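Thread: "does anyone have the structure for this chain?"

Original post by V.I.:
We have the sequence but no experimental structure in hand. Need at least a predicted one for the grant figures.
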Amino acid sequence: MDSMVIGSFPNISSMITTVGNLRQGKDCTKNYYATGYYTPKASLHKRKIQKEYNFLRVQQPSLKHLYKGIEGGHTYQECNRKYVVKATPKSSFEYDPRSSDRKNILASFKNFLDAFYMFCTPYSFIGAMLNIISASLVAVEKLSDISPLFFIGVLQALVPNLFMSIYVAGINQLCDVEIDKINKPYLPLASGKISFTTGVFIVASSLILSLWLGWIIGSWPSIWALISFTVIWAAYSINVPLLRWKRNPVLSAMISFASFAITFPIGYFFHMQTFVFKRPALFTRPLIFAITFMSFYSIVFSLFKDIPDIEGDQAFGIQSFSMRLGQKRVFWICISLLEMAYGVALLMGITSSCLWSKIVTVLGHAVLASIVWYRAKTIDLRNKASIASFYILIWKLLYVEYFLIPLVR
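Reply from O.Q.:
Generated one for you, tokens below.
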């Protein structure tokens, strides 16, 4: 386009000079004569050049536009500057403190949930829930009893006891912080993952919620069970005169027996029997078996839990059976009690008049007894991890037992 505009004029040199002057100012005439290039020869073309100048003056805006488009000039720089200004705030590497704060909050919340999970001692928590379900199933006499009414009754028993389980686990840890720093430093209070004040708040609020929900539901067997748990586990843990029964091995065993063999099976069986099904309070064959079997198991729990804790118990003057008799002897006493419990279950199955109950009870308990004996021969009593693994195995076998107990008929 530039060659087309210049080629339309005969005097190319004057045209180039004129365009250059137009670039520097609006008054081209003054610039032209001020340069000193005016000659007599140029006067011959004065009129022609004047006409050409007038034409160019009319075309000046378009030429200026053409020149700016060719040279790039201010227009390009301005566009480039706008681009840079707009691009700078969009940088993906810019630090955002709000995003960092959100990540820290989420990480702290996740860590608290993990610590709270450990604070609730999940194996005993699950055991308590399954114990209630098992006791409720013991009250079932026929298949038609498995109805929406049954599930509502189970839920009414489970929810208050959920908070009671947190109270039971928490109050023991609150009273044993210093011992746990030696025996179980991984626990939330002993490790500092949960502060003592937070632990007190969790325990107190859980106890209040448990008793309040039990009162709202209005089942007296359930209320009796909740109050019993409150009293016996406070007596077991709190270090005040006449309490702290865990220091005495006989009283400690009585606490475990009262909780597992009496309160759970009897309290929640009668919750379903009298409050939900509106039946008379009778001791049935499955209930008697549940009480007998759990009597053995409760003593095992009371003895076995102290086997790995000799160091801390000795430092704080707790005279457990493991301290008095030795770890190995107490361990094999526990194995003997477990085998006796499975022996009672086999006897109940053999004497049952119901064929399917006889088969399931005998075979089921024979398998569980074999597992206990096989694992007992492989345990290393010098290794705390090995002892803890066997303790968890006892709980898992109890979980299975909770579903076998209602099948005894």
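V.I.: this helps a lot. The longest helix spans residues 148-175.
O.Q.: and The mean pLDDT is 78.
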